[in-house]
Design goal:
The chain has helices at 7-13, 16-56, 62-69, 76-93, 104-124, 127-159, 164-219, and strands spanning 221-223, 231-233. By secondary structure, the chain is mainly α. It is rod-shaped, with a radius of gyration of 28 Å.
Length: 238
């Protein structure tokens, strides 16, 4: 690349606005990649936890199934099983409050739904950053381009020379800001879409697990949707 072009030349020749736009785009890019990598790791771990949930139902009793889910406090499937057990025990052993007038099915459903809502909020945290970066970065880059072109034209007008070699350099450098904006926005948009799909997959499995837990705590058996003949009983121990 010619010495008259490039990011270093744009930085050295740009004013405080151009430099501010470049720094802002850099910060937005770093924030986007941090969210993408962090949430991708969370989704991978959640899918591993989901595979353990299948082994939960091939247990002799609840305590054994809970052990198969592992000891991770951030395992949403384990936490959901604990929430369901505590809700069932609470409803069975106490009748002192107004909310205890709910029947067991409604009370357990409410507790499981609260657990799913907490997991949903955790999985979706940070996605607003990606959405904001994806929608604003191109316009921030475009603003830097417009500002750079304006000052390039002002400089050319002051010098009194408008030959192509004098115009191409400053205008080309200003257009780099638009390219930077797109370079920041595209990964953010693609990352957002991929994370939304990953979260949807995890939440679908969590909802299915919650449905089976509800059936287990209310009826004493897991009922698989679509295969009504398949019922896997667990002892209500643990």
């Amino acid at each position: 690349m010619d010495s008259q072009f490039g990011l270093s030349h744009v930085w050295s020749q740009g004013d405080f606005v151009i430099r501010g736009v470049a720094v802002l785009l850099l910060v937005m890019s770093l924030a986007s990649w941090l969210v993408i990598l962090t949430k991708a790791v969370d989704i991978i771990r959640s899918k591993k936890f989901a595979r353990r949930a299948d082994a939960f139902w091939h247990s002799e009793d609840f305590a054994t199934g809970l052990a198969k889910l592992g000891e991770n406090d951030d395992n949403p499937f384990r936490n959901l099983a604990l929430d369901g057990r505590e809700a069932a025990a609470h409803h069975r052993n106490t009748k002192a409050h107004l909310h205890d007038s709910l029947d067991a099915s409604d009370w357990i459903t409410r507790s499981l739904r609260n657990g799913i809502d907490e997991t949903t909020a955790r999985l979706q945290s940070g996605l607003a950053i990606l959405a904001s970066v994806g929608s604003t970065a191109p316009f921030i880059g475009l603003f830097g381009t417009v500002w750079g072109i304006y000052h390039a034209l002002m400089s050319i007008g002051t010098a009194g020379q408008a030959t192509i070699d004098k115009v191409a350099g400053p205008i080309g450098e200003a257009l780099i800001m638009t390219a930077l904006g797109l370079a920041v926005a595209i990964p953010a948009v693609l990352g957002y879409n991929a994370l939304v799909r990953g979260n949807k997959s995890v939440l679908n499995k969590l909802n299915s697990f919650a449905h089976d837990l509800h059936a287990y705590f209310v009826t004493g058996a897991r009922i698989s949707v679509g295969t009504p003949a398949t019922v896997l009983p667990l002892k209500k121990g643990g």
